Amino acid sequence: xxxxxxxxxxxxxxxxxxxxxxxxxxxxxxxxxxxxxxxxxxxxxxxxxxxxxxxxxxxxxxxxxxxxxxxxxxxxxxxxxxxxxxxxxxxxxxxxxxxxxxxxxxxxxxxxxxxxxxxxxxxxxxxxxxxxxxxxxxxxxxxxxxxxxxxxxxxxxxxxxxxxxxxxxxxxxxxxxxxxxxxxxxxxxxxxxxxxxxxxxxxxxxxxxxxxxxxxxxxxxxxxxxxxxxxxxxxxxxxxxxxxxxxxxxxxxxxxxxxxxxxxxxxxxxxxxxxxxxxxxxxxxxxxxxxxxxxxxxxxxxxxxxxxxxxxxxxxxxxxxxxxxxxxxxxxxxxxxxxxxxxxxxxxxxxxxxxxxxxxxxxxxxxxxxxxxxxxxxxxxxxxxxxxxxxxxxxxxxxxxxxxxxxxxxxxxxxxxxxxxxxxxxxxxxxxxxxxxxxxxxxxxxxxxxxx
Length: 452
Known about the structure:
Blueprint: E1 12-15, H1 26-32, E2 39-44, E3 49-54, E4 61-62, E5 70-71, E6 76-79, E7 82-83, E8 90-95, E9 102-105, E10 108-111, E11 117-127, E12 135-145, E13 153-154, E14 163-164, E15 169-172, E16 175-176, E17 183-188, E18 195-198, E19 203-206, E20 212-222, E21 230-240, E22 245-246, E23 254-255, E24 260-263, E25 266-267, E26 274-279, E27 286-289, E28 292-295, E29 301-311, E30 319-329, E31 334-335, E32 343-344, E33 349-352, E34 355-356, E35 363-368, E36 375-378, E37 381-384, E38 390-400, E39 408-418, E40 423-424, E41 444-445
Parallel strand pairs: 1-2, 5-12, 14-21, 23-30, 32-39
Antiparallel strand pairs: 2-3, 4-7, 6-10, 8-11, 9-10, 11-12, 13-16, 15-19, 17-20, 18-19, 20-21, 22-25, 24-28, 26-29, 27-28, 29-30, 31-34, 33-37, 35-38, 36-37, 38-39, 40-41
């Protein structure tokens, strides 16, 4: 029995003789005295025999009736409590799931919750160490409040990345704090054509089709809190023009004497474009104006190398160059002589065959017929003193120029060489005498013999 006012754990209590505690049972007395008795043995009491009684521990009872609330991001601790039964106790979660970040160990729920929970139902079971063991369960709820929202702030505060016309673009506006999810909107300004803002993500995306120079844009983000927080930011967006590209890779050929036009083409950059000839010389008769080469060439050119430059109107300006060749063919070779002048025997003759176009010098030849005697062909000129007549003598001439490839043309003409002019050369007759034989011949030149 305790002798100093403290509590002692007694394994047994033996009472000798006939001891009665009126109105108080020994088990109740033992527990009232905070004595844990495994057994009470009573000896005697009339029958003079020993009697042993086993005293059961009190019923196991869970005394925890509720769990304190917690908050995301804040350390949490709550200990489940029980009385009665035989210690130590073993605790288990038999229904429900603890919020993320919390765990149960030896009746203590602890950890730092990472997710909110609203009156999550949980069933805990405690088992004592008795034999037989006692088991009790309790159903509780646990609420983990969301982390108190911080101040909403937009972290995209400087500028949006630059883009380029024709190139896929994507930039995402960013925010912190508040309560997600966020909703984004454009409250001032206009996104360049081809771009769109996705409200749920704050992503500006698309393929811009128009340029923009530091275009001012105002964005607003709204969180999901109650009450909601909003923040605004002013940004600029620059979309550069597409890269300037000259798409003309060659120039069409032209011909001397024929009107010519060819337009240089470019894409990208900022229109209008300014064109210039930076190397080479346009064939005579042609000029460059606003990217168009035009005129009527008066001189031929064989793959003349030309370098053109295109400068756009952007700031800063883009400049591109291209080197191409231009060929101006000679005019079509044409013989302009349609007939030959008549000649006369004995009279000096000269006629020059004429040609236009082609590339000089030209080479002439007689390919059909024969020139009247006394005449010859040299460098397109028929000359000499005919000694024989000809009546519309058929002649075919061919001319070949010096081009590469060469051009040639032919013409069929006729040539008439008239006889020399008929002339009586006898200017007097010799005298004669009666009775003497007389003879005198009249003389003539020219004409056509025989004479009559």
